[in-house]
Write a structure and sequence with these properties.
The protein is mainly beta and 251 residues long. 8% of the residues lie in helices and 46% in strands. The strands form two sheets. Strands 1, 2, 3, 4, 5, 9, 10, 12, 13 and 14 form a ten-stranded mixed beta sheet that branches. Strands 6-7-8-11 form a four-stranded antiparallel beta sheet, with no helix packed on it.
Length: 251
């Protein structure tokens, strides 16, 4: 695995800001799946930076979020699609910012990608802990309702939407993130829109997390991640989109 860095010179100066943060870029995503699991609160507290407070759906439980996103060809000059996997904890937002109420706020613990251009861009512009893993591979289900992700260290996770007939709806919302990077803490904001299916009906089954370094290097208790709090998957043959903005350093 390798860390990369570089300077983004493509940001538009005419794009409106969000919460006073300058626009960075738009990301177009061909496939997106996100599962949020309930885990013991004590198991994630040590992975969070100081001042970042986890959300508790019920006392003593926290929410662990995993994402697989596959970006369209042409993103960052890549000729083919490439993948990103993310491990985060759902945390409390900063409600003092001048922006719509965040639908979701994540503390990003780890990000893997099989694109060097992605890593070189995302570390210096969004200040996230992104690692280059050339062996990262993902098998998206033919019906686009699931994915299996692995690399040379072994399987990472397998996610499968629990609905046999998912109902897709157009969504548009804002969010925030916290991230440790280069010995400091950063806070960012984002906009997201597209057609997705969301469900909280399938509490058990549909998702399996494996003891991979994406989780184990942070001490995340994946063996206790049994109940699925929320499932999200993008509509087949329809892109979803995200706009990101320059983060603020918290020290």
């Amino acid at each position: 695995m390798h860390y990369g860095c570089g300077v983004d010179e493509t940001a538009s100066t005419s794009e409106p800001s969000l919460a006073g943060r300058a626009f960075d870029r738009q990301w177009d995503i061909d496939f997106h799946i996100s599962f949020t699991f309930e885990v013991p609160l004590a198991g994630v507290l040590g992975a969070l930076p100081p001042g970042v407070v986890p959300m508790e759906p019920v006392p003593e439980l926290a929410l662990l979020n995993v994402i697989h996103a596959r970006y369209v060809p042409g993103t960052l000059g890549e000729s083919a699609m490439f993948d990103e996997v993310v491990c985060s904890v759902v945390v409390q937002p900063d409600l003092s910012l001048d922006m719509p109420t965040p639908r979701q706020t994540l503390c990003v613990l780890d990000v893997l990608s099989n694109s060097q251009s992605f890593v070189r861009t995302k570390i210096p512009t969004l200040r996230m802990p992104v690692r280059y893993e050339p062996s990262l591979r993902a098998s998206v289900a033919e019906d686009r309702l699931g994915t299996e992700v692995s690399d040379d260290h072994g399987p990472i996770f397998a996610l499968r939407c629990g609905e046999s007939a998912p109902r897709y709806k157009d969504r548009a919302f804002c969010g925030q993130y916290f991230a440790p990077c280069d010995g400091s803490r950063f806070h960012g904001v984002w906009r997201w829109w597209g057609s997705i299916h969301e469900s909280q009906r399938h509490r058990r089954g549909g998702g399996q997390l494996h003891p991979h370094p994406l989780f184990t290097r942070h001490g995340v208790p994946i063996d206790a991640a049994r109940d699925c709090y929320l499932q999200q998957v993008s509509q087949p043959q329809a892109q979803v989109h995200m706009k990101t903005y320059a983060p603020a350093e918290l020290g």
